[in-house]
């Protein structure tokens, strides 16, 4: 398939390629679920999403589970539609000093939203502003709003709302999330100016991330209506973007998965995968996905294996500034098998030997199985969770007998914004939208 692409899109693609790769290929072999619609979101004055003109599956008589866009429509009222001026005010006009980070699609700012009734402290949020706008950017923005509008789990980040403006001065797409004070796992593992996270905290972070992924792969029950009866089945969600920068951390280092712009509904029935153009981040994507476009929950497991090695070693999946043999993390660790004597040489020196060797070996073996070339031989996420729980047990047993120092008490400060505050905001947003509608 030939893709028409404008100059500004090329510029956008180039900037994205700093972190992401986009390989386009013929999608004619797509399964039936691939072309489902992404409905327009409220207050999106114009949408050029080709997806929005595609038909959706009917909810009433199909024996298929409802799709995420269909489920989103029922929960849409929970998302707050922010105005651009509100978000400008919240971030002091997107002040650089408030910038928390930058990804392939734009910058993330810390912001303060005024409480709906004007009383009490402002609510601290994180606002992601998409840099430029292309079809890929819009699709991801819609997917993010829909998936996070439907999915709910303690280990997934909360999306409070969004802003979409198609004005004379261009098109703006923004997302408003709960603020995660400790930023991302990436910031702690690789940024030498941030204190290293201790062993036990690493284990609890990766366990929480696995539990978030278990919810995506196995925990989402959806209703299936047929003419005769109504039953439930699991809807698999493939996350497609598991990496350390997408594991955000709250004040107590509780991890929450973020960035659902690439998420996809998994295959239905006997199918092992969906076929799609590979989109993702170098170093984390499964080989069968990169070469064949075969996407399955086991592709997420592969990415999980990469992050497990990042946690063990404190090294990035890809580090260009190291000697050639050390640049690719997965190649490098192969020289230090989990059962060998030299295994401990790969462990992050910033841990200062404060870790359980048994647990580390167990995790390296788990990582190796996640990285299996054959997707079917990789463990399920439930099996991953079990092994991680066992590694935590190893650590506790070892620490009661010797080497591992006590866990530094994490700052148990007040959460930045409570669920109660978020709900209050949502109720107010719904009222505000109703009064706008009444005035119109
Ligand atoms: N809700 C949030 N609260 C606090 N900090 C955040 C939040 N979301 C993102 N950040 C910070 O902003 C950084 C950039 O995030 P972003 O998701 O835009 O890019 P990325 O994940 O690094 O890369 P990519 O665009 O390839 O996914 C994160 O690494 C994190 O430090
Ligand atoms: Mg991210």
Automatic annotation (TrEMBL):
Native source organism of the sequence: Coffea arabica (Arabian coffee)
UniProt binding sites for ATP: 129
A Pfam family of this chain: PK_Tyr_Ser-Thr
PROSITE patterns linked: PROTEIN_KINASE_ATP, PROTEIN_KINASE_DOM, PROTEIN_KINASE_ST
Biased composition (Polar residues): 400-413
All residue ranges annotated as the Protein kinase domain in the record: 94-392
Biased composition (Basic and acidic residues): 29-39
Compositional bias segments (type: Low complexity): 44-67
Gene3D superfamilies for the chain: Phosphorylase Kinase, domain 1, Transferase(Phosphotransferase) domain 1
Domain of life according to the entry: Eukaryota
InterPro entries: Kinase-like_dom_sf, Plant_Ser_Thr_Prot_Kinase, Prot_kinase_dom, Protein_kinase_ATP_BS, Ser-Thr/Tyr_kinase_cat_dom, Ser/Thr_kinase_AS
Name of the protein described by the UniProt record: Probable serine/threonine-protein kinase PBL19 isoform X1
Region annotation Disordered: where it falls in the sequence: 29-67, 392-422
Subcellular location: Cell membrane
This protein's UniProt keywords: ATP-binding, Cell membrane, Kinase, Membrane, Nucleotide-binding, Serine/threonine-protein kinase, Transferase
SUPFAM superfamilies associated with the record: Protein kinase-like (PK-like)
GO molecular function terms noted in the UniProt entry: kinase activity
Protein family membership: Belongs to the protein kinase superfamily.
């Amino acid at each position: 398939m030939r893709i028409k692409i404008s100059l500004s899109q090329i510029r956008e693609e180039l900037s994205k390629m700093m972190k992401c790769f986009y390989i386009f290929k013929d999608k004619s072999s797509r399964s039936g679920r691939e072309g489902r619609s992404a409905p327009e979101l409220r207050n999106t004055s114009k949408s050029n999403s080709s997806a929005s003109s595609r038909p959706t599956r009917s909810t009433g008589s199909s024996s298929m589970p409802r799709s995420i866009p269909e489920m989103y429509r029922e929960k849409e009222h929970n998302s707050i539609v922010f105005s651009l001026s509100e978000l400008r005010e919240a971030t002091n006009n997107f002040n650089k000093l408030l910038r928390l980070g930058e990804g392939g699609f734009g910058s993330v700012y810390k912001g303060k939203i005024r409480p709906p009734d004007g009383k009490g402290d402002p609510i601290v949020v994180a606002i992601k502003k998409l840099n430029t706008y292309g079809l890929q950017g819009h699709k991801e923005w819609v997917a993010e709003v829909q998936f996070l509008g439907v999915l709910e789990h303690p280990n997934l980040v909360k999306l409070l709302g969004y802003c979409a403006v198609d004005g004379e001065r261009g098109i703006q797409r923004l997302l408003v999330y709960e603020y995660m004070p400790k930023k991302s796992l990436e910031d702690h593992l690789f940024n030498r100016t941030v204190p290293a996270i201790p062993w036990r905290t690493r284990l609890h972070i990766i366990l929480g991330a696995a539990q978030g992924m278990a919810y995506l792969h196995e925990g989402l029950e959806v209703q299936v209506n047929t003419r005769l009866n109504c039953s439930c089945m699991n809807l698999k969600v493939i996350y497609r973007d598991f990496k350390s920068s997408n594991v955000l951390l709250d004040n107590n280092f509780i991890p929450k998965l973020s960035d659902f712009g690439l998420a996809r509904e998994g295959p239905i029935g006997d199918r092992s995968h969906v076929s799609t153009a590979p989109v993702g981040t170098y170093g984390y994507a499964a080989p069968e996905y990169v070469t064949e476009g075969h996407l399955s929950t086991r592709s997420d497991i592969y990415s999980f294996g990469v992050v497990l090695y990042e946690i063990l070693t404190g090294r990035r999946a890809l580090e260009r500034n190291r000697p050639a043999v050390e640049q690719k993390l997965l190649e490098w660790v192969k020289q230090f098998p989990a059962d060998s004597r030299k295994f401990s040489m790969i462990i992050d020196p910033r841990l200062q030997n404060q870790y359980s060797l048994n647990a580390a070996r167990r995790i390296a073996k788990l990582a190796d199985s996640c990285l299996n070339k054959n997707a079917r031989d990789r463990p399920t996420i439930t099996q991953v969770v079990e092994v991680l729980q066992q590694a935590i047990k190893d650590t506790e047993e070892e620490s009661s007998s010797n080497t591992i120092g006590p866990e530094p008490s994490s700052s148990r400060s007040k959460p930045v914004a409570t669920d109660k505050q978020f709900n209050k905001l949502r109720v107010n947003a719904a009222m505000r939208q109703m009064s706008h509608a009444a005035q119109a």
